[in-house]
């Protein structure tokens, strides 16, 4: 007997509602229509409508009518209502948590999971068992074992799993890969890659914010730089064999606090001269079009001076960066040995401006240099350097990761809408392999040993 879930869909009749009915067509999966395009928009649920989930929802609207937000699950009522209203999601498809959404009758084809990292395993497993194709925010999970469990759950359920490695999809990444494939620099030998997290971005997310504790969220190499380790593998296109890593928490510690520093920035006599002042950072974000606006909205979603004052007085984002309840590294380096003798060096630092990544790719016939805005290709034979200007947004999450957020969502929609997983390069199994490099590097940092991947 043929499994109905394995039959290709008839593009002229699949899951069509009766004439005159307002009942939406039944949900479908990528596996249901291989190589055949859907005849209606892809319906996507948002599980976690915080900063990342809300941003991905907006990008769904930019896919030329090929996708719509069909449901919203968010614990904060005001945020849930606002995001639902923005995307015309009715009351019946608004849920107070992801658990309510997954327990309800399924109306969406796919779900974007953007809840806290520690909840990824439970959420991804539940949505896979409920039949949803999944786009999972990175990192997949705080531990390597949980990452494996997520991939196995999705494969067992036969659903598609994609992971939000947005750097793969940026315009400058596409240009770099084109240059490499064309032979512009010969064979890659070595790559140097810097992630300049940015002083106030690091203070927001990794000192005061949700990713300040390695026991709760995981090491910073996982929560911040799994993007970059994945990107290196995507560029080098070889399996990693072994890694070594060094790093520590150097500055954001109680013993580094200026004399007289208070527990909260609002009460601190040294706040005017502190580069990590929460008062300064988040008040700047109240101004229209300020780069800090994305981060201020996390602290005080109402974006009013009164709401911000209350959040700085009562919440974690108003605390001194030297208060001592954070433990993730503020600087780290990773050396990676790839198959065929290729090597890469990665460096993460909190002590930079908020700017794009900096990369140099050394080949046998030339060198590629990029800052995310431009790509320079130097030819050893002619000794000429050609500049390629890439039009993109800024580097941070609030600025769309240099165009990667929008392009990744477009690729996900294309894969599911056209029944062709090859449009989306960061599938679950691929992401699992690059996550394994991160976990191996962290073991190296903690033990001082070279660790095989």
Overview of this structure, please?
The protein has 453 residues and is an alpha/beta fold. The protein has 3 domains: 160 residues, Rossmann fold, CATH 3.40.50; 178 residues, Dihydrodipicolinate Reductase, domain 2; 65 residues, no CATH class. It has 14 helices and 15 strands. The strands form 2 sheets. A 9-stranded mixed sheet has the order 14-13-12-11-7-10-9-8-15. A hairpin with a 4-residue loop joins strand 13 and strand 14. Helix 4 runs parallel beside helix 5. The radius of gyration is 23 Å and the shape is globular. It comes from Pedococcus cremeus. GO terms for molecular function: nucleotide binding. Belongs to the Gfo/Idh/MocA family. It holds the Pfam family GFO_IDH_MocA. InterPro entries: Gfo/Idh/MocA-like_OxRdtase_C (IPR004104), Gfo/Idh/MocA-like_OxRdtase_N (IPR000683), Gfo/Idh/MocA_Oxidoreductases (IPR051450), NAD(P)-bd_dom_sf (IPR036291).
């Amino acid at each position: 007997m043929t499994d109905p879930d394995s039959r290709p869909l008839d593009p002229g009749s699949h899951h069509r509602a009766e004439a005159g009915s307002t009942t939406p067509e039944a949900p479908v999966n990528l596996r249901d229509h291989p190589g055949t395009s859907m005849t209606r928009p892809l319906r996507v649920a948002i599980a976690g409508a915080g900063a990342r989930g809300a941003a991905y929802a907006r990008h769904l609207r930019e896919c030329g009518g090929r996708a719509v937000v069909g449901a919203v699950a968010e614990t904060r009522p005001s945020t849930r209502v606002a995001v639902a209203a923005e995307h015309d999601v009715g009351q019946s498809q608004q849920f107070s948590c992801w658990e309510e959404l997954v327990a309800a009758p399924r109306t969406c084809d796919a779900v974007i999971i953007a809840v806290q990292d520690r909840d990824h395993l439970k959420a991804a497993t539940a949505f896979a068992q409920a039949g949803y194709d999944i786009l999972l925010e990175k990192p997949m999970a705080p531990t390597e074992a949980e990452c494996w469990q997520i991939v196995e759950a999705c494969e067992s359920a036969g659903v598609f799993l994609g992971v939000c490695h947005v750097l793969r999809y940026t315009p400058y990444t596409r240009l770099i890969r084109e240059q490499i494939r064309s032979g512009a620099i010969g064979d890659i030998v070595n790559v140097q890659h810097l992630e300049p997290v940015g002083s106030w971005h690091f203070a927001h997310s990794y000192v005061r914010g949700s990713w300040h504790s390695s026991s709760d969220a995981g090491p910073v190499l996982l929560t911040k730089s799994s993007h970059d380790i994945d990107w290196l593998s995507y560029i080098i296109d070889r399996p990693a064999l072994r890694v070594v890593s060094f790093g520590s928490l150097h500055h954001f510690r109680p013993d580094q606090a200026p004399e007289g520093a208070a527990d909260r920035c609002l009460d601190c006599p040294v706040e005017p001269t502190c580069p990590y002042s929460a008062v300064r950072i988040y008040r700047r974000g109240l101004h229209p079009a300020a780069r800090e606006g994305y981060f201020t909205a996390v602290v005080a979603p109402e974006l009013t001076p009164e709401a911000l004052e209350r959040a700085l007085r009562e919440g974690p984002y108003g605390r001194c960066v030297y208060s001592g309840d954070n433990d993730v590294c503020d600087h780290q380096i990773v050396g990676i040995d790839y198959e065929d003798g290729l090597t890469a060096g990665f460096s993460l630092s909190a002590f930079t401006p908020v700017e794009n990544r900096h990369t140099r790719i050394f080949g046998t016939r030339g060198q590629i240099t990029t800052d995310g805005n431009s790509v320079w290709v130097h030819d050893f034979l002619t000794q000429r350097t050609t500049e390629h200007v890439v039009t993109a947004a800024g580097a941070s999450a609030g600025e769309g990761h240099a165009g990667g957020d929008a392009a990744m969502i477009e690729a996900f929609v294309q894969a599911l809408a056209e029944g062709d997983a090859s449009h989306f390069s960061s599938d679950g199994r691929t992401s699992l392999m690059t996550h394994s490099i991160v976990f191996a590097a962290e073991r190296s940092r903690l033990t001082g040993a070279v660790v095989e991947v």
